[in-house]
Amino acid sequence: MEDELTISIATHADDGIAEEIHRLIPQLSQTAVFDQAVLTRMLAAESVDLFLARIAGTVVGMATLVTFPIPTGLRGHIDDVVVDGRVRGRGIARELLNAMIARAQAVGVRSLDLTSRPSRESAIRLYEASGFVRRDSAVFRYQPIPNP
């Protein structure tokens, strides 16, 4: 079927894939900047899986799963979940999430975390419907000041 949704894990970033990811980035964040060198480095990292959702061969969504060992076990974190605004509401984010959960279980993660802005109500409903539970914690961020 021509408009069938497929989910895969990217293994490389040719110019076409990079261009499609570059197109999605502004829909993810107004402040994020696309860097193809960082994308290439990310895809080479053993601990990172970039999931791509495609319809008719075109990337329409993406999400990143990072797994890492710490003294208390293998942990996972989901980041940068975005679906193209033109195809939202078709269950693509749910399929990306299901694929990441399956991958995390396959590699043996002890827990899988993600964060979401409170304003993303539909995303939060999806995460909760998928088994994620809100935690009573605070998220802190440190942003180093670049050297001149």
From TrEMBL:
<dbReference type="InterPro" id="IPR016181">
    <property type="entry name" value="Acyl_CoA_acyltransferase"/>
</dbReference>
<keyword id="KW-0012">Acyltransferase</keyword>
<dbReference type="InterPro" id="IPR050832">
    <property type="entry name" value="Bact_Acetyltransf"/>
</dbReference>
<dbReference type="GO" id="GO:0016747">
    <property type="term" value="F:acyltransferase activity, transferring groups other than amino-acyl groups"/>
</dbReference>
<dbReference type="GO" id="GO:0005840">
    <property type="term" value="C:ribosome"/>
</dbReference>
<keyword id="KW-0687">Ribonucleoprotein</keyword>
<dbReference type="Pfam" id="PF00583">
    <property type="entry name" value="Acetyltransf_1"/>
</dbReference>
<keyword id="KW-0689">Ribosomal protein</keyword>
<keyword id="KW-0808">Transferase</keyword>
<dbReference type="InterPro" id="IPR000182">
    <property type="entry name" value="GNAT_dom"/>
</dbReference>
<feature type="domain" description="N-acetyltransferase">
    <location>
        <begin position="5"/>
        <end position="148"/>
    </location>
</feature>
<protein>
    <submittedName>
        <fullName>GNAT family acetyltransferase</fullName>
    </submittedName>
</protein>
